[in-house]
Amino acid sequence: MLTQFHSTKAGILAGESRLHLEAIEDVACSADNETFTKREKEKFCKDTKKCENVKIKNYKTVNAQHVNINAVGGALNDGQDQAGYLSTKPVKKSTVRWSFKNLFVLGFSFMCVYTAFSSLQGLQSTVNHHNGIGVASLSCIYGATVVSCLASPWIIQKLTTKWTIVISFSLFLVYIATNFYPKDFMLIPASVLLGLLTGPLWSAQSTYTTTAAISYAQTIDILPEQAISKFNGIFNGIFQTCHIWGNIFSAMVLSNNDTIHVNTKHINENRTGKFCAAKDCGKFTLLEEDMYLHIAETPPESRYMLVSIFLCCAALGVICIIALLDRNSTTLTATKCSVSGTSSQDSFSATLKLLRDPRLQLLTPLLVFMGLEQAFIYSEFTKAYVNCPLGLHNVGFIMTCFGTVNALSCFLIGFLSRQIKRYCIMLSGAIFTAGLLIVLLLWVPSIDDIIMFYVVVSCLGICDAIWVTQTNTLFGVLFPDDQEAAFSNYRMFQAIGLATAFGYSYFLCVRTKVLIMCAVMVISLGLYTIVELRLRRRQKHMAEIIVL
């Protein structure tokens, strides 16, 4: 944000309710924002020293939880009109440009890094299948993420959002490089190390995106909820294309390997109905000696080529973040002006305190379900529904379809959310997901019905897009004053779901895993409905107070 205000709250009694207004007392000393020219910086700093005793003339409700200032009047000590120098067209254009520029840089960088990681993640259950070392490494990543989420606000306060992202991305390079020699003593330590900064990484991303969205909303005078939903849709639309590019690379490399085709021929012809899809029982299926035939060995040359490509993609993401992403002006201003009153220790405790918030408690099963669902896609679907009946060389093609549909759905849902209520979108997603889970229980994949594979994976992409975009928006609306703590908890509970699913992946049958997801989804939808009803009741109550 180019200009940012430190506000105090004045209570106004209306009936038995109390309305809090945000009053502008002073202008933050954010003149070091990179979008200011040198002359503007000097004038800005000079003027803000005189900015005292500003009075509110009118106000406008922005949303149920925040009452923002719509028009600010009053006289400055030197007689200047405050709105004249604080709200100008150049400043608005610059703010909008800043918001979108950083949003696209952030999305592109995450897309590059996760082009490598998500594709490698989808191949771990098949490429590094011996003793389940592949999924074990993923479980370690998300297990460590659970711990790191608690310290996310403290880490972000120390490093800033930008450098939290940079350092986290660097650890992705380390993890990817260990796949040149995927032994447990290499993969597991690298996985734990990566997990320890994955929580702060996503908290920093969510905080940065939400901050940019709120800045944009205040500049063009729209509801923050609309801007947050739009920005999340754009970010996730860019980010989710990582599934396209990464899986294209995988498909190109693996489809040229004749060994993979030979190894899968026997199982494709004779064992699909007996061992694949919902009947896949992981470790216990492999007790049958001839089942080893369907687990294709990846030649060293193919592995080295894939890992090298992934390393280059991740390195590009790191370079883009360092060179092009601006520091978060909100965090920077609060730190330099020393007026926020929030220490690193307070931020850490805020993450724990938020666990007592009833809204977060009600949303916890939904976040865990999202983790279970994503782990199922990357582990069980690729192994039991694609690799088993079709062969490893088809995993890349099928998952490319998933990434394409997922990315397009994120864009579409982000814009549709301005016309359709969030609860309607979430309810539609839940019904769609329930139907899809039933299909996964009953479907017997056949190599003669290749179109069905693309239909099912497309549905998975749509469902995932709904959950991701709408839950991010919901958290931005519910916890606008505790973004870092809220998104830390968001990622923590999602990581619990991921770690749990990857942890039992090697030991449970696919049918059992699908039933677990069904049960958790039903519970999470019911509790989410309570949160939405309470939020709407509060919005209606606040609107009545404003009218009075």
Automatic annotation (TrEMBL):
Topology of this chain in the membrane: Multi-pass membrane protein
Major localization class: membrane
Spans traversing the lipid bilayer: none
Keyword annotations: Membrane, Transmembrane, Transmembrane helix
Record's subcellular location: Membrane
GO cellular component, one term: membrane
InterPro entries: Ion_channel_UNC-93, MFS_trans_sf, UNC-93_regulatory
Family in the record: Belongs to the unc-93 family.
Annotated protein name in UniProt: Uncharacterized protein
Taxonomic lineage of the native organism: Eukaryota, Metazoa, Spiralia, Lophotrochozoa, Annelida
